[in-house]
Amino acid sequence: MADKVLLALLSAAVGALLGGVVSALVARYASFKESQAVAAALRAEIEVLLTVIERRDHITGLGRTISHLSIATGPPAPDDFYGTTGGTQDSYSVFHANCGKIGLLGSAAEFVVAAYLRFKAVDADLSGIPERHQRQPLTRPQLLLAHQGARDLLLDAIQRAGVAVTNLRDLERRCFLRCRP
């Protein structure tokens, strides 16, 4: 009889332990799948941003504005500003929707955040130039410096976005319970 009670207690303990392990495994799998979904969504948005920048030829356009500002003389004209790359809140909707889940990306998060923050800074810089110029006119050297800074920041954002896309794609392809260096 004591053996039956001991066996029942042992069975209950093993069952509880296995139930806990299975529950933890299911939770880990759900987190893993969510990280893959977030990675896929962010990768897609970054790829769209890169495509838009390339198709609209923003680097060349900024270069033309910089060249014009370098050779022109006199006070800047109203059209001596490069138009913004169009970065409104909606341009980064996937990023904003998933900010609270960035930690799920592990080491891939660094380049994702670095790229997005640089894209947003370029948008803010370029859209702020005309507004700033209306409040207090900028000199040609100030405009030149602002456009050069925006171009350099955009080039850096593009480079970091490329690394982010690669890292996110690797994260999407990762297998559950398989460790990768």
Describe the SSE topology.
Elements: H1 2-55, H2 58-71, H3 93-97, H4 109-135, H5 140-173
Helix pairs in contact: 1-5, 2-5, 4-5
Give an overview of the whole structure:
The radius of gyration is 26 Å and the shape is rod-shaped. It has helices spanning 2-55, 58-71, 93-97, 109-135, 140-173. Helix 1 packs antiparallel against helix 5 (140-173). The protein has five helices and no strands. It has one domain. The mean pLDDT is 87. The chain is mainly alpha-helical and 181 residues long.
Order of helices and strands: HHHHH
Question: Structural class given helices, strands, pairing?
Answer: mainly alpha
Rg, alpha carbons: 26 Å
Shape: rod-shaped
Name the assembly state. single chain
Quick tags:
mainly alpha, 181 residues, 5 helices, single chain, rod-shaped
In short:
The protein is an all-alpha fold and 181 residues long. It has helices spanning 2-55, 58-71, 93-97, 109-135, 140-173. It is built from five helices and no strands.
